[in-house]
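Per reviewer request, we include the raw input and output of the structure prediction for the construct analysed in the revised manuscript.
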Amino acid sequence: MKLSVIIVSYKVRFYIEQCLHSLFRAVDGIETEVYIVDNHSDDGSVEYLTQRFPNVNIISSNRNLGFSRANNVAIKQCTGEYVLLLNPDTIVGEHTIHDVLAFMDEHERASGVGVMMLKDNGEKAMESRRGVPTPMTAFYRMSGLCARYPNSRRFARYYMSYLSWDEPAQIEIISGAFCMLRREVLDKVGLLDEDYFMYGEDIDLSFRLLKAGYENWYIPTKILHYKGESTHRSSFRYVHVFYDAMLIFMRKHYGHFSIFVSLPLKIAICFKALCTLIGMQMHSARKLLGLVRPRKRLTTLYVFIGKKEHLEDFNRLAKRHGIDAAFVEGTVSTLPKGHVGQEFTSYQRVYATYDTEAYSYEDIFNIFSGSSQQNILMGTYNPATQTIVTGEEVLR
């Protein structure tokens, strides 16, 4: 078996459906097995996915194992020469996996590879390339020096933003959203550390690969990452889990440092978490007392861009959900720039929603990355399932 793909799921069945749709295009011609580990979703995810994807290995856990342990369950069962850890809220380009495997086949010291991750407005995600969060690197980020001097190899090491986006480069940390690993190396350095429930496990594994003498790489092939569709980043649980992961990493890899180095950093992490929690509490209290102005509802438009024969189904879906919709007939051959150049000035937010039979995922990525605008976000429409998927919602 050439490739094993592992996706951990928790209440995101429609995003996984979209992810699998793109994945099966991307692994065409590659001997591949796919594992989904469901972390005890109570929304019918297992039944829904089992019915629609009979060739996918679905493991249904009777409790929420967390990200690390759930991945490890599947890694122990899979047989691929390469193992891809893939988030459910991603879309994979048609050539992405071929590009990554070709690179790894040619670079024997490459233990793992990450890719260019796009946000849903077409911007490149800084998390695509990261450095090890050493005490000083973490300090530079938390103090704002990383953002202030993005081209500095010293201050900007956390996101390695001094590297070219368009060339392969050695990096230190591979994002767990798309992490291609060489299985024989994974067997040597060990699986994901299960002390991390969520967050930090990709940093820990990447660091262990480096310490074992291997190389981690970034290559400029694209995926979309909605970035945490299954995670409520404003929740107290998120703050607790995220900062706890930072402390676990510090204790594990830098516990031997002088107390004069480790203690201030631990205090800074705890202080940052405390400030975040206090800010959330204050916002909740002000909102309860009516001191926070309610946000104005954004005027939103869904623009369908695709084949003529799919317009009617999309229109029916738009009417069912009471959304404002516009329609642009075209394919990549007749309308290669898609929504670019169209006027949507009367709307504050626009979902440019592409027919996935008229445009490949890579076509959509290239259109957005060539002309990213904050208020124009990526959407997809799958005629086979008659489903609209955006980073905010799913319409069926």
